Amino acid sequence: MNDVLLADLVQPVRTRAGRQTELPIYSVTKHRGFVPSLEYFSKQVFSREVSDYRLVEPGEFAYATIHLDEGSIGIAPERALISPMYTVFRVNQTLVEPTFLLRFLKSPKALTQYARLGKGTIHRRMAISLDALGTLRVPLPPIDEQRRIAAILDQADVLRAKRRQVLAHLDALAQSIFHDMFGRVEASSTVEDVAVNIRTGPFGSQLLHGEFVDEGVAVLGLDNVVQNEFSWVGKRFITHEKYEKLRRYTVSPGDVLISIMGTTGRCVIVPEDIGPAINTKHMCAITVDRERVDPEFLRASFLWHPESRAHLLRQTKGSIMDGLNMGIIKSMPVPLPTLSRQREFARRIAQVGVQRTCVRRVSDAEDALFRSLQSRAFRGEL
Asked: CA angle, corner 174, sides to 170 and 175, nearest 5?
């Protein structure tokens, strides 16, 4: 298997949308590649912003210039528009099978190299140009072998996709339970009314990135809540001495966390086994009055109650919740059914959670096996 520079296989595409107003708009995601992101545009709603979008043809590649290290790359299924945030290129199909190249660019072997290719100063915002990506070396067997490897990986990925569908159905079930029980209950209270403490994390010089250590008191941030479920990723800690200065930012089991900067509006409950911890300035922590509201119910209201959601969207002027603050959170309307009804909901959600945990474990195992399969494929061992 010979290594070939990616630059020898690709050609950039820089076609702008112009007046192509009737085409669908797509986004490029980590798991699903190209997915429709907006309804078809008509000339009546055409805007200058959309005219700056990129035009992609079927079979062309596009990747998120600042999120390629997450695997956000795909192949266009039809003629469409995508945001200027994406880089577009086409491949020489006499040399490389597109699906084989796509699998390689999403493989662990490639993902680990993207950090050195990016340029920028802010973590998670390291832009990778096509010129930089072109320096990547691609293991390239004969074209028939490429197709065979791509077919094997595609078949394996189908199983992973089905497992993700099960997880999505369980998430939808939780939302459906909430709507059935509380969707028509009027929001008669506010977050401030049902909370005993609401706070964000330390700002500015109170907590510097250089003060993080390998163990100690945990610091919770956006990466712990990004999927609307608590996840122990990107672990950060401060010393116990530093914690004593920041004790007022302590989060405790049962607190509700909502992201207010970056990827905003994500909401989780702090788990029972958290240990000593604080939250960053990107999070708002809410300690609730347990005699009035169940934390699981409040989290669900943030995510699914129509009046609560309308309040958040209205306060951010209909944008994709690009910024929340303490005032918006405190004034958010929430329903307040009986505590027994809230706890019944929490019990039903816990049952769904047990099923979700089992499926998640199997999904994680399948992901690990798939990564191993990818590694073998691009070492010529498949």
From this structure: 115
What does the pLDDT look like over 230-275, one tens digit per residue?
888 778 899 999 999 999 999 999 999 998 876 778 899 999 988 8
pLDDT per residue as tens digits for the range 158-208: 988 899 899 999 999 999 999 999 999 999 999 999 999 999 999 888 988
Of 257, 342, 229, 334, which Cα lies nearest the Cα of 294?
A: 342
Phi-psi region of 25 (alpha: psi -120 to 50; beta: other; left: phi over 0): beta
Q: Are residues 75 and 201 in the same domain?
A: no
Provide the residue range defining the domain that includes 234: 186-336
Residue 30 CA neighbour count, 13 Å, CB half: 7
Structure tokens at 84: 């200027």
Closest CA to 236 of 283, 197, 302, 299: 283
Q: What is the pLDDT of residue 50?
A: 63
For 102, the 3-state DSSP assignment is helix
CATH of the domain at 17: 3.90.220.20
* Per-state percent for the chain, helix, strand, coil, to nearest 5: 40, 20, 40
What's the per-residue H, E or C state across 143-162? HHHHHHHHHHHHHHHHHHHH
Based on the fold, state whether residues 274 and 312 are members of the same structural domain: yes
By three-state DSSP, how is residue 127 classified? Answer: strand
Residues of the chain above pLDDT 70, percent? 91
Pair 146, 114 in one domain:
no
In this structure, are residues 200 and 326 in contact, taking their beta carbons and an 8 Å threshold? yes
Q: How many CB atoms lie within 10 A of CB 223?
A: 18
Residues 15 and 109 placed together within one structural domain of the fold: yes
- CA 60 to CA 75: how far, in whole Å? 6
Per-residue pLDDT, 40:
39
Give the H/E segment covering residue 104.
helix 98-105
Distance CA 22, CA 24 (A): 7
